[in-house]
Design a protein that fits this description.
The protein is α/β, with parallel strands linked by helices. It has a single domain, classed as 2-Layer Sandwich (Nucleotidyltransferase, domain 5). It is 49% helix and 17% strand. The chain contains 8 helices and 7 strands. Helix 1 packs antiparallel against helix 2, helix 2 packs parallel to helix 7 and helix 4 runs parallel beside helix 5. The longest helix is centred in the middle third of the chain and has 27 residues. 33% of the residues are buried.
């Protein structure tokens, strides 16, 4: 049996992924970090005091001052981790228009193919797409740098999906990720490596150090996406991470990618419905 290194992947989000309620800010941000399981305790020990991993209560955003956020970024740069932050700009008009149209197609297909009559919320769509795109990037980047055998364990901050969508949103996401990885790099580049991705697990325990770790990292990264009038707004933590981690850090917009995905799915759906007995399942 091929030996695989155990890798931990953590994901959390910031903001409200909705056009109806974006009072917190105008961006929806996903933050992902990755590291070797064998180095987890070393990492947690190093950041424990600043991040409050061992505290009785989690370190809340209002207790993270600008100076503390910058110090957290600085110590994170010294750790064997990688960080990826993807975001969507909820102010983009084309995103509004395309999402409204996509949701109409989505609801029709959900009724026809899966018998689900309840309309899907845009928040769940944005979350699942940002999750998949963020995870895809950081996993592919990690694999390409090392070209070794890996078993990925993915944990995401608790997100309440409707029961009909839970299996597809969580369990089937692992299949999607594995297919994308094999199609984009392993098969295409003919790499002789073995990759496994375990089903995504929700971080429901508030006392979990993994949950607290990704919560604080996300809070620190999110400071750059707040309105400039917000007293917590600060670009410096993100700049520190970018300078310190270098090629182990990436922040980029996922807005255009999300728009293109929806347009392609709509076109594909229209073409498929022209064929007899052909139905596309849109989740």
């Amino acid at each position: 049996m091929t030996e695989q290194s155990e890798i931990i992947v953590l994901f959390d989000e910031f903001g409200t992924p909705s056009f109806q309620d974006n009072s917190t800010n105008n961006f929806f941000v996903g933050v992902c970090t990755i590291y070797e399981l064998s180095k987890e305790q070393e990492i947690f020990n190093a950041v424990d005091n600043l991040m409050g991993l061992s505290n009785t209560n989690p370190l809340k955003n209002n207790r993270i001052t600008k100076n503390r956020a910058r110090n957290i970024s600085q110590i994170a740069c010294t750790q064997p981790i990688e960080i990826t932050a993807f975001y969507i700009d909820l102010q983009v008009q084309e995103l509004h228009e395309t999402t409204n149209l996509y949701m109409q197609f989505s609801d029709i297909e959900r009724r026809l193919a899966r018998g689900i009559t309840k309309e899907r919320k845009e928040a769940n769509f944005f979350h699942s797409q940002l999750l998949n795109d963020c995870l895809s990037y950081i996993l592919i980047s990690f694999i390409m740098k090392r070209k070794e055998n890996f078993n990925f364990q993915i944990f995401i901050d608790d997100w309440t999906y409707p029961e009909p969508d839970r299996i597809i949103a969580l369990e089937d996401s692992t299949k999607f990720l594995k297919n994308r990885i094999y199609q984009n790099i392993i098969d295409d580049l003919k790499l002789d490596i073995s990759i496994n991705i375990e089903n995504i697990i929700l971080l429901t325990d508030a006392n979990s150090k993994r949950k607290r770790f990704i919560d604080v990292l996300t809070t620190v990264c999110s400071r750059s996406f707040l309105d400039e009038s917000n007293p917590k707004y600060d670009r410096e933590p993100l700049n520190i991470l970018s300078t310190g981690l270098r090629d182990r850090f990436m922040v980029q917009s996922d807005t255009a990618e999300m728009i293109n995905f929806m347009k392609n799915m709509i076109d594909y759906c229209i073409k498929k419905t022209k064929s007899v007995d052909a139905k596309l399942i849109i989740i």
